Amino acid sequence: MTDVRRRLPAIGTLLELSGVRELTARAPRDLVADSVRRAVEAARRESTDTPDSDEAWVAAIAAEVERALVRSLRPVINATGVVLHTNLGRAPLAAQALAAVRDVAAGYSNLEYDVVRGARGSRHQHCARLLCELTGAADAMIVNNCAAALVLTLNTIADGREAVISRGELVEIGGSLRVPDIMARSGASLVEVGTTNRTHAADYRTAVGPNTAAIVSVHRSNFVLEGFVASVSPAELAKLAAEAGVALVHDFGSGLMADLSPWGLRGEPTARHAVRDGATLVLMSGDKLLGGPQAGIVLGSAESVGAMRANPLARALRVDKMTLAALEATLELYRDADVAVREIPVLRMLTDSVDSVRTRAEAIALAMRDGGTACTVVESDATVGGGAFPGARIPSAAVRLDGISAPDANARLHGAAVPVVGRIVESHLVLDIRTVPPLHDELLVASSVKVLAV
Question: Same domain for 114 and 172?
């Protein structure tokens, strides 16, 4: 039997098909030509599914064009129930932050220009005053993430010297990155003290010596140690560090700015409390519980922060104008706690009542059933994610997809024009509504019904 792959049409022949020529009205000719080549190569690999007509070839090429036109980075609907989902971009931005980004990105800005003096300025001035106002810190600066803040901090104050840290705080964060590996890149030598489950003040005192530059305290924000455990609080470490004449670096990570205990979320320090505990430098993230863009925020003494600004690494780790604009607009919302909870999406998701979430879930389920998708509203537990409040479970409501296997539902929803990401619970795919912004409810229904009804 003759292999059909030997009779594949030439690239030039396919480019002359009227349907293929029409594709050049929507995409550059070179992109269409590349799509033709990919379609032919796919047919060469898949001998059992080779297009057998001009129409079939046009359809195959059009599909390749569509794939090429889809942006690599694009929106998805987070229905996982994980509010700060690292793989899905962590914190969605407040409307005010988005507006600030548009205003600054659309033209020129005073990023490094002092409009009062009419001379060169510094990007490090932006957000610093507001951070000091909100946290009580003497000074502040912004770098591109919290890991960068830790590297810059230790490189500035402990390069070639020792940094003392508890073994119980040598944690691994997302993407298999480990705090000790990050710290080692700073040029500081790590001195581990205590054990995995118990570290005492005496362990630090014994380890501090003539070559010690800093004690490092890393908040265990992504797991909980229970049972026979002991640790030294940042406030105690601040006193110990002052006595020894070394710096205390407190990486508390989450960036929590508002007290969430009224909503049952306890155990995570706020930025103001972390500063008040007396650390020389406090480090936190911008895109976790703070609810802003990805950023590493450094709070501390004017002398230490000034030294970090002067470090050549600060230029390599600096943030751009859009990050600064989004962060400043987000921070401004914290001047009124009620406004922050209402306007910052992360805080709104964490504090919304379960009755409100359930009402939305029922409306979404009704619309999906009207569209031909079998589903049921079920109780759910959402989580904070992002390495914060690791043991917390937040009552929620979800739409459970019935009559379709979880893998099939997953594949279809991931292939939607706006992909929908849920989670599998007891062999069903469920869509937790707590992590879906209310303005995306209709989009969730439209995207789901379109692919699930196929």
Answer: yes
